[in-house]
Amino acid sequence: TEGPPPTPVAAVSQYACQRRTTIENNNKIFTDAFEVLAESYEFSELEGPCLAFRRAASVLKSLPMAVPCLAATQGLPCLGEHTKAVMEEILRYGRAFEVEKTLSDERYQTLKLFTSVFGVGPKTAEKWYRRGLRSFSDILAEPSIQLNQMQQSGFLHYEDISRAVSKAEARALGNIIDEAVHAITPDGILALTGGFRRGKEFGHDVDFIVTTPELGMETSLIPIIINRLTRQGILLYCDYQASTFDKSKLPCHRFEAMDHFAKCFLILRLEGSQVEGGLNSAEGDSRDWRAVRVDLVSPPMDRYAFALLGWTGSRQFERDLRRFARMERGMLLDNHALYDKTKKEFLAATTERDIFAHLGLEYIEPWQRNA
Ligand code: DCP
Ligand code: MG
């Protein structure tokens, strides 16, 4: 008895850059669980299992429907024994023991709390935890702790900057930066990047690229913008990092968290009157302004496409672009350039499409990069 031939299902790639992942996540119950475990492993500096859970979460995010049973994960990449065991528990009981245990773990809770402060990374959080500190008041009452400028601002504006930034607020900030850029140079270029470029409704900050068509002119852009924001009285915090970009040292051989372009990490004061529909403020907060985190990066124009691709994210999408380039194409990609190791040459690009084409990848739209 011969049934109909099985319908061929397009295989899901192990690389996020060969999948289309919108903001619609049909497997949130699993991916939230995986992200808790990934973060917990990150706090313990166990990179292997951390990455495994991040990859598994990313694969499930790309699926057009919720996984109904473990059998449905047949043939999916990046799902190992451990991830499948967690999924099975969630399918059966609606939750997984290991995740529950992690969420109620004092160390996890404390490190999560401490790293939620702007300027506090896992290293600092761990150091404070080992000294027996467990709350913000513990930290602020400890005389031997010297907070740096960034952390002081992080605590000062904690309420505001830990609340999500809305799309309308991102748009209002875009107007402010756009005005500054064009007051400086009429042919200045401003582009929204990060999560909002991927179509997210909310973000933890707003990311922009600012540059000029004339090579070299972009280096003065951020300092002038900062000056202007200061005069407007809306600059609450500024960490400016001048460019350390050196063409002769291209490209970096490993994934770097930071590139070498001029950039600044800001906290800006946003007025409610500037935001269509008003501020996303806490209930009972009668202020007509809020503090928001904004990042600006300023690559030279001939690096624009690489910077845009690198700052649009998501992080997992970026990781897999670089991994794909290295493993499948013998190429090195970072936020500055693409290098072909076989041909021993740099591959130029003026658009993101050029970079995908050099890599032999189908173009993935920004809103499909929510891996
Ligand atoms: N980025 C990266 N690796 C890092 C930091 C940043 O690849 N270590 C890139 C990818 C990110 C983008 O920069 O998408 C912006 O960084 P954000 O931390 O602002 O991340 P998102 O904008 O994606 O998310 P959020 O909504 O939390 O701001
Ligand atoms: Mg962002």
From TrEMBL:
It comes from the Eukaryota. Mg(2+) binds at D205, D207, D295. Its cofactor is Mg(2+). One of its GO terms (cellular component) is nucleus. Keywords: Magnesium, Metal-binding, Nucleotidyltransferase, Nucleus, Terminal addition, Transferase. The keyword ATP-binding does not apply. Its main location: nucleus. Its EC number is 2.7.7.31. One of its GO terms (molecular function) is DNA nucleotidylexotransferase activity. It catalyses: DNA(n) + a 2'-deoxyribonucleoside 5'-triphosphate = DNA(n+1) + diphosphate. It is an enzyme of class 2 (transferase). It is found in: Nucleus. GO terms for biological process: DNA modification; double-strand break repair via nonhomologous end joining. Template-independent DNA polymerase which catalyzes the random addition of deoxynucleoside 5'-triphosphate to the 3'-end of a DNA initiator. One of the in vivo functions of this enzyme is the addition of nucleotides at the junction (N region) of rearranged Ig heavy chain and T-cell receptor gene segments during the maturation of B- and T-cells. Belongs to the DNA polymerase type-X family. This is DNA nucleotidylexotransferase. The chain holds residues 128 to 498 of 498 of the full protein.
